[in-house]
Design brief:
Elements (H helix, E strand, L loop, with lengths): L5 E6 L12 E6 L5 E7 L5 E6 L5 E6 L4 E7 L5 E8 L9 E2 L5 E5 L5 E7 L6 E9 L15 E2 L5 E6 L8 E7 L6 E8 L6 E6 L5 E6 L4 E8 L4 E9 L11 E6 L5 E6 L4 E7 L6 E8 L5 E6 L5 E6 L4 E7 L5 E9 L3 E6 L5
Antiparallel strand pairs: 1-2, 1-28, 2-3, 4-5, 5-6, 6-7, 8-9, 9-10, 10-11, 12-13, 13-14, 14-15, 16-17, 17-18, 18-19, 20-21, 21-22, 22-23, 24-25, 25-26, 26-27
Length: about 350
Amino acid sequence: MNYRKYVYVGCRTTKARHAIGKGISVYGVNDQGGWDLLNITKDLENPSFLTLDNTKKFLYAIHGDFGDITAFKILENGKLERLNSITLDAKNPVHVIMSANNRFLVIPFLQTGDVVTVERNVETGELIKVASRKIVKGITEDDVSHPHMICFDKTGKRILVPCQGREAGVSKVVVFDFDPDSGELTQVFERKTRLGAEARHVAMHPNGKFAYLVSEKDSTIGYYSYDEVNGAAIPMQILSTMPDTKTGDCWASGVAMDNDGKYVYVSNRSDNSVTWYSIDQKTGYLTLIDNVSCMGHHPRFIVFGPTARHLYIANKNTHTIYRYTKGDDGTLTEPTLMAETGSPTCIAFSWTAK
């Protein structure tokens, strides 16, 4: 079969993470929309988060718990050819995203508190050098606040960074100016969350004015009014990531928004579920709609496919990826098993919506 679309799945591989992943799995999308496993790029430790460049010709992996970033070329058959790696004296990268001009990767390192930009060769895809490095401070100058994600605002010249805080840090959202010519980062704003909330992931509305922050420990989603002129994020609303009919630990994790910005979805790792909300397009306020099973355990990662017709859920502890179909009213139906794969933590697609 000649495949035109490919899916890449990152994972955990190490015994320290109780993982059984083997590497970056490459799937071809068949004529029925299913996934056929084509290849696994092995000999990689914890390729736990992936991103493609804007041309979809190159793929980049960060290696959780370590300090490495690896570049790959995507071949015509969808398989990966390793280009080069760089290693930083930082620990546990947890996310990676490409700048709008396709020149820089931006990466948060959870353990050591670094937010780093890495320059790449736009033509060859190879990693060149660290362009900027900032540390998000904790309660004291010697502590860090454990950044967990990078989200560009609509301008592409500023990033929002949720920070978990943990014991010696501060749970907060930090905003940096990003210079697209040099990759330099300059902090311009920060907003603390509730004490001990552990801010984890954030999603930006297409209008550039609404931001939705998921916090892990208090299992909440917060709506922030975002001022893209000065980078200020103003808290407006906070809701539980669980319906009132459920109680107990939740451990909120991933967040995903449909392309139109009408609905936002949150995964709950302890409850093994996904909750979704409608977004008021005028005010930005949320209304909780419903909650469904993730069809597995520990849904660490959720993402919409390129058309936002399907939501994909990576269940790390039961080693499955499920797909739900999103209705016009935001409802998730038709759970479908797409892949059985060891300790999945990230899903990336080789195409964009047209």
